[in-house]
Specification:
Elements: E1 3-5, E2 17-20, E3 23-27, H1 32-43, E4 47-52, H2 59-64, E5 67-70, H3 76-83, E6 88-91, H4 102-120, E7 127-131, E8 142-145, H5 158-177, E9 181-186, E10 188-190, H6 197-207, E11 212-213, E12 222-224, H7 225-237, E13 245-248, H8 256-266, E14 275-276, H9 278-294, H10 305-312, E15 315-317, H11 320-326, H12 334-348
Length: 352
């Protein structure tokens, strides 16, 4: 790998390297985080190889000059071809959601990660960045929780359960095969190109069906998309990141109410008004989940344990380790980030 640095930027800044012969393999590159990683890598002068399902929209990746490898995380042959000769792997692909058999999540989130790690085992890899989630922590209030917190063996849904299992697999490959893995645990990621969570929130705001839990006063654990991308590149460039796990967020306490009101105000929508106590929300979610499972409903109820965790718990996680080890300092604050997210939404969905 040969690189040239841009003068004027501090050592370790994720944009410092501007010319690089590094080859990146990115999973989830047609998605929210992965597309930003691919764009940043190409801006740094790197070559990007992206794993893309045959049915996915690859227009953006083709536009920025990424090499397309058709396949998915369970396609062993495609993964072997895609990882041949790469220097860096960034795994941002995952099956997300809070409903369905855990085996379906495990196939992608655990076995897919294992296939990736097997493909690069023993190769001269610079870094393998695995994008996990702060959802791996227990479903309780958190006040400055750091990475030393033990993770629960059993979780409330298939996504968080398998994200825990995937981390264990990844760290085993560090220990047993010296694969240079770094694990990042972002919070709730928002920003331009989010075609899933933010549009769903906005739809609920338009329907006037958003009801706060505990008056929306607890922290949301926001992570602006470019901040997590910064953390990814700092992890790639820093040898001290190997074998480590880092919480990544905006370093701010943004409440659920603050977030929803910012979105509503930005789109001239009515602010949510109603609220229910946390214990009522938990009881309702458990009851509705039991009913839906008994009836084998393919889709989740409107309220689940996962939505109560998101909407009703204090989710405050320390990023002190990332600041100290990686030199991570969130560059984009909430006001700037939410403005960018809303402006992108207006352009992407002009008829709304």
């Amino acid at each position: 790998m040969v690189s040239r640095s841009m003068p004027g930027l501090p050592k370790g800044h994720p944009n410092r390297t501007t010319l690089s012969m590094t080859t990146y393999f990115i999973t989830g590159a047609t998605g929210f985080v992965g597309s930003h990683v691919a764009e940043r890598a190409i801006a740094r002068g790197a070559k990007v190889r992206a794993l893309v399902r045959p049915t996915a929209d690859r227009t953006f990746l083709e536009k920025i000059g990424a090499e397309i490898i058709l396949g998915d995380l369970n396609d062993v042959d495609a993964i072997r071809r895609a990882t041949d000769g790469v220097d860096v792997v960034v795994n941002s692909a995952a099956k997300v959601g809070d409903w369905g058999p855990v085996e379906e999540y495990r196939k992608v989130n655990v076995e897919g990660v294992r296939i990736l790690l097997e493909a690069v085992k023993g190769k001269p890899l610079q870094r393998f960045v695995h994008v996990s989630s702060s959802g791996v922590y227990a479903a309780r209030h958190h006040y400055g929780t750091d990475e030393t917190e033990p993770l629960p063996l059993n979780h409330i849904d298939g996504y968080t359960q398998t994200k825990v299992e995937a981390e264990k697999v990844a760290l085993a490959y560090v220990r047993d095969f010296a694969v240079p893995v770094t694990i990042l645990r972002p919070g709730f990621i928002y920003g331009p190109r989010d075609r899933t969570l933010l549009p769903r929130m906005i739809e609920r705001l338009r329907e006037r069906t958003v009801i706060y839990v505990a008056k929306g006063r607890y922290a949301l654990n926001t992570t602006y998309v470019e901040n997590i991308v910064d953390a990814i590149f700092l992890s790639i460039d820093n040898p001290r990141a190997v074998g480590e796990v880092f919480n990544i967020n905006d370093g701010l306490l943004v409440s659920k109410r603050q977030f929803f009101e910012a979105v509503a105000d930005g789109l001239n929508l009515p602010r949510p008004r109603g609220s229910v106590p946390l214990f009522v929300a938990w009881w309702t979610a458990n009851w509705r989940e039991r009913v839906f499972r008994k009836k084998n409903k393919p889709n989740p109820p409107r309220i689940t344990q996962s939505t109560v965790k998101f909407a009703g718990l204090n989710l405050d996680f320390s990023i002190a380790k990332a600041r100290t080890v990686l030199g991570y300092s969130p560059a984009i604050g909430f006001e700037e980030g939410i403005h960018a997210a809303i402006e992108w939404y207006k352009q992407a969905y002009p008829a709304q």
